[in-house]
């Protein structure tokens, strides 16, 4: 459904020395520095995939999304949506694209929500029957019809996000870009957004690219993860496989009846506080059951639990690499 080849975006940043002398020099001779916002990205997405596209602030996520959706023109490279090059056939391709930017709404501030939908219906030339059917589907997921008579300016942030999601899906696009849609949302609104993504992917087989700093979204929605930093691809693969590769260990937490904690040859005693000890072990080398069996021969065990590497720790490691 999506093919990205050698995608790059460069910006020229004017260099200026400090003070009045620097300003005068800049008038005489202007020097520029090239900033590589996105640098030579390659990846492909299949129909119906939900992909997390993440990275730290300034990594180039939004720039990439804007190029993929036709808002920005790449410095080099190509983006194919459904086999069509978006830079050469923009009008045809954008008919199959929906975009939601968490920090910018496409709803008309001065209209009722329903009037914004009607406006988009005419822009995309959507048949009345298709429009009504799509609105019914959106209402079953988000309960949007109770908001259609409300002016956009009077809607809460969560309600506006719901409106933007419906607006992006009115023309039944094959691809949906969600650029940090959960910014500022409360728990219930985030739940509604995640439900929407799951249902629309299930019902319409929509390919969804999600950028977010909310790692709960990644864990709940995405099987595949693409990580970029400084515009460069860092990781691309199955989420569980990335976790296993970056953090191929588990932590066994053992509570003893007294404060002594024995060592074990196949794991590392990483923490010992009072009668609680934490052992880190490699998942491919041994199992928690084997370690517990060995430790129980040396000491009486009161309780045990296992800690997996948290996705926030995984992402920190990936960003740092």
TrEMBL record:
Residues 2-255 form the ABC transporter domain. InterPro entries: AAA+_ATPase (IPR003593), ABC_transporter-like_ATP-bd (IPR003439), ABC_transporter_ATP-binding (IPR050763), P-loop_NTPase (IPR027417). Keywords: ATP-binding, Nucleotide-binding, Transport. Transmembrane segments: none annotated. GO terms for molecular function: ATP binding; ATP hydrolysis activity. Pfam families: ABC_tran. PANTHER family: ABC TRANSPORTER ATP-BINDING PROTEIN (PTHR42711), ABC-TRANSPORT PROTEIN, ATP-BINDING COMPONENT (PTHR42711:SF1). This is ABC-2 type transport system ATP-binding protein.
């Amino acid at each position: 459904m999506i093919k990205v080849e050698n995608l790059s975006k460069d910006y020229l940043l004017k260099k200026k020395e400090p003070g009045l002398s620097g300003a005068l020099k800049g008038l005489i001779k202007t020097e520029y520095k090239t900033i590589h916002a996105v640098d030579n990205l390659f990846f492909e997405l299949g129909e119906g995939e939900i992909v997390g596209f993440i990275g730290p602030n300034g990594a180039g996520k939004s720039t990439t999304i804007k190029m993929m959706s036709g808002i920005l023109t790449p410095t080099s490279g190509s983006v194919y949506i459904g086999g069509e090059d978006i830079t050469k056939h923009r009008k045809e391709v954008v008919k199959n694209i929906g975009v939601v930017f968490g920090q910018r709404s496409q709803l008309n501030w001065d209209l009722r929500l329903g009037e914004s939908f009607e406006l988009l219906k005419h822009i995309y030339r959507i048949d009345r029957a298709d429009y009504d059917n799509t609105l019914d589907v959106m209402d079953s997921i988000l309960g949007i019809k109770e908001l259609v008579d409300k002016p956009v300016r009077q809607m809460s942030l969560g309600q506006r996000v719901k409106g933007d999601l419906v607006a992006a899906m009115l023309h039944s696009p094959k691809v949906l870009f969600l650029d940090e849609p959960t910014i500022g949302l409360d728990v219930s609104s985030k739940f509604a957004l995640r439900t929407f993504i799951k249902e629309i992917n299930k019902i319409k087989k929509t390919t969804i690219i999600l950028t977010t700093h909310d790692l709960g979204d990644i864990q709940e929605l995405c099987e595949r993860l693409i990580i970029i930093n400084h515009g460069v691809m860092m990781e691309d693969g199955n989420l569980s496989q990335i976790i296993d590769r970056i953090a191929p260990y588990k932590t066994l937490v053992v509570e003893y009846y007294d404060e002594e904690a024995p060592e074990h040859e196949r794991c590392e005693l990483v923490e010992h506080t009072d009668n609680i000890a934490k052992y880190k072990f490699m998942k491919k080398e041994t199992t928690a059951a084997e370690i517990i069996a060995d430790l129980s021969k040396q000491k009486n065990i009161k309780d045990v639990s296992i800690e997996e590497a948290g996705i926030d720790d995984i992402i920190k490691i990936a960003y740092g690499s």
